[in-house]
Amino acid sequence: MRTRRAIRAILPVAALAALLAGCTPAPEGGGAPDTRLRVGDITFEPCSLSAVGARAVEAQCARFEVPEDHDAPDGRRIGLALALLPAEGTAEPDPVVMIAGGPGQSALESYPQVAAAFSDLRRNRHVLLVDARGTGGSHPLHCAAEDEGSAFDVEQMTAEAMRAFAERCRDALSADGTDLRRYGTTDHVRDLEAVRKALGAPQLNLVGISYGTRVAQQYAKAWPEATRTVVLDGVVPNAMVLGQEHARNLEQALDTQFQRCRDEPACVGTLGDPSAQLDAVRATLEASDLAPVQYRHPVSGEWLEDRPSFGHLAALLRMFSYQPAASATLPLLLHDASQGRYAPMMSQARMLADSLDSQMAQGMQLSVICTEDVADMAIDPEDAGSLLGTGMVEFFHAQCPAWPTAPRAGGFRDPLSGDVPVLAISGEFDPVTPARYGEEVTRHLANGRHLVAPGQGHNVIGAGCMPKLFAQFVERADASDIDASCLDRLAAAPPFAGNYGWEP
């Protein structure tokens, strides 16, 4: 049995540096001008942040050491990767910290994809990025697969194979003494506080994205006096068990998206009912031993050959539903597959697998979920017939007994409360963190407000006028009187009616 991987955002010169509040140029050693930047006790050097499909962003980068176990400060230490995006003018003393999702994504690698959304904020505030321990450049915990292939053939794995994969990953990652118990949310939160103190920042403005919203809430609970504002994009309530509701949330999102096709004569008339086609294609992929299909690699153009599986289709339906422009293509994808044209599905699945495998640090993900969530996971029989089924819960039930964990922090599931200013933002069609989660979080907050972006999916920080709205919130530390009527201009992309796109 072949095993697979786990299931699865301005280079300153010395003259500019002198303008940055709280920042001073590092001492020159003679010769060429020194473009390093010192903030508090941390010295940054020029660097470039890059991500596939996004323009590179010039920044200042640094390494910052922390104890692997904060309760044993004299023990083993690990390095964290930091990046600073300096303010364009004189900066306020409280930087904005973007916290990436996953769990398992790198903040430094994710930022170029959302950099434009932070342009208003950078007029008078630095943006700070910290790769969570176990991701990116912070002692990454990547699990290598035994062989090549789709990262989404997990449904073909037995529980024994899943467990064996986790054991191999555990043994490989811990061979150098790494304590895998120390790579969860609470550890990341303590790292952020250590960085804040080293920078000399009196407070932080937190911007959590997806799983990063859990981190932001846990930080604000632990250090409310050090938290000036919190923005939560794609809200994960503290009470939510990661993975437990993914199946039902996706079903609801797909039902809504498919109804939009049925309501559009050009879509349903040309491509048919996507719900009915999904049922038919699923039955074919699950029951038939289909012949291998040739298709081109979407990036290199190389001809490849692979056997279509339901895993390929399920992965595309799940991940494409995150964004309106991608979900608009799903009726066409299902129509092609129903006609036996699997090459488009295979090509897109390959592109998706390559992207997610490189972005996610699976070992860090296991450290988070096995410590914080798996004990609360339960198989829901009602999920059995859904697109995702019970596979995600079964996956972690199989792997987590092999993974080292620490006790979950006390009060971890308690909601964030108090008077910290919080702006929660959600997409109307979000398939993983639906808008009701934002309502659940803000109802505990005296200074919380929830905005829903019409027609949008997962992560809406860059949608329409949202960058201006959340910049206003950070500036005022108050969301109550922000005029959000501009969001009414947002709408979902129409469903495709053919290869040419949607009807004009």
Automatic annotation (TrEMBL):
Localization (cell): Cytoplasm
Classification via InterPro entries: AB_hydrolase_1, AB_hydrolase_fold, Pept_S33_TAP-like_C, Peptidase_S33, Pro_iminopeptidase
Top EC class for this record: hydrolase
PANTHER family for the chain: PROLINE IMINOPEPTIDASE (PTHR43722)
Coiled coil: none
Entry's family note: Belongs to the peptidase S33 family.
Every Peptidase S33 tripeptidyl aminopeptidase-like C-terminal domain range: 398-486
Main localization, broad class: cytoplasm
Name this protein carries in UniProt: Proline iminopeptidase
Record-listed E.C. numbers: 3.4.11.5
Record bears the keyword Aminoacyl-tRNA synthetase: no
Pfam families in the record: Abhydrolase_1, Abhydrolase_4
Annotated transmembrane regions: none
GO molecular-function term, one example from the UniProt record: hydrolase activity
Segment forming the signal sequence: 1-26
Origin: domain of life: Bacteria
UniProt domain AB hydrolase-1: residue ranges: 95-244
SUPFAM superfamilies registered for this protein in UniProt: alpha/beta-Hydrolases
Iron-sulfur found in the keyword field: no
Alphabetized Gene3D superfamilies for the sequence: alpha/beta hydrolase (3.40.50.1820)
